[in-house]
Amino acid sequence: MVTRRLPSLNALRAFEAAARLGALNRAADELSVTESAVSRQIRVLEDELGVGLFRRVHRGVRLSPAGERLASALGQAFETIRRGVDEVRKGPAEIRVRVLPTLGTRWLLPRLSAFESAHPDLKVRVSVLWESMTPDDVEHDVGIVMDENRWPPERLIALFRERLTPVCSPAYLKRIGRLDTPAALRRALLLHCSGAPDWPLWLKQAGFPEAETDGGEWFDTMDMALRAAERGRGVAIADLAMVADDLTLGRLVRASGIVVTDRTNYHVVRRDTGRARPEVDRFVDWLLAEAAATDQGDGETAAVTEEA
Q1: Where does the UniProt annotation place the signal sequence (predicted)?
Q2: Measured between alpha carbons, how far is residue 27 from residues 11, 21, 39 in Å?
Q3: Count of beta carbons in the 10 Å neighbourhood of residue 154
Q4: C-beta of residue 161 within 8 angstroms of C-beta of residue 292
Q5: Nearest Cα to 236, choosing from 249, 248, 223?
Q6: What pLDDT digit, counting tens, does each position of 197-239 carry?
Q7: What global pTM score does this model have?
Q8: What is the mean pLDDT of the chain?
Q9: For residues 302 and 98, what is the distance between their CA atoms, to the nearest angstrom?
Q10: Assigned CATH for 164-254
Q11: What is the CB-side half-sphere exposure of residue 80 using CA atoms within 13 A?
Q12: DSSP structure string for the chain
């Protein structure tokens, strides 16, 4: 295929500016050249194309029909170039994400480098904070929240459901045995996440509703309790999505085959409800794909809580 040589870029720029501004002197000011230089470039362009682009009138110039067609095409082309240059100048598009501590440190952040490698034109900035993103949060574009009533249901995009089971270090499990009997439970030091009813929930579904849960040690987050469990301190309740890597690498083992599937869900929320941003679309699609691929395990026995 033979590619026709384009006219001089300087000539095209001079013509586009004169056509857009309606005067040669204004075009000269914008391009920082003399008016005679603009006039000369336009004559060069007309000679190369073999057609008149302007009609000289008493107080300036007026586009010919051919000039109008070329001015329209060049206006669009130069605007596309300007936008492209602006995008490069300002760097990658930025997505600001807000997540809760355990989800951020154990699930999102370990996966994020893969997203950034696959999308070098996007920059993700993560805030790992105690409180979930709220509808009036204007500092973040995307949030991952747990079930709560501050967001309208239609704004919640389901990510995955909590699946809870006890975990501990391999050495600790060898010492106390699996949590399949009341005696084993009495030997275990229970590690609690403050404010979460995970142990009472699991014990009830596992068939030990009368087991004592007031003892043990308490931590602000599930992640803190899991770190203590990794070091052989006791047994913690884990969401399987948060410990998939630990189980695979043998840092933690499951202390029971019973998995409790609560009705607590993680959801994605986004701020750009009026006009969706394509980069946010890409990030949310990736989150959903990662959630679907997360190995949460099925357990030897699964129990689902039924709440009214």
Answers
A1: none
A2: 12, 6, 10
A3: 7
A4: no
A5: 223
A6: 888 888 888 888 777 777 789 999 889 999 999 999 999 999 9
A7: 0.63
A8: 84
A9: 31
A10: 3.40.190.10
A11: 6
A12: -PPPPPPPHHHHHHHHHHHHHSSHHHHHHHHTS-HHHHHHHHHHHHHHHTS--EEEETTEEEE-HHHHHHHHHHHHHHHHHHHHHHHHHH-SEEEEEEE-HHHIIIIIHHHHHHHHHH-TTEEEEEEE-SSPP-TT--S-SEEEEES-TTS-GGG-EEEEEEEEEEEE-HHHHHHH--S-SHHHHHHSPEEEETT--HHHHHHHHHT-TTS--S-SEEESSHHHHHHHHHTTS-EEEEEGGGSHHHHHHTS-EES-SEEEEEEEEEEEEES--SS--HHHHHHHHHHHHHHHH------SEEEE----
Q: Residue for token digits 């030897």?
A: 300
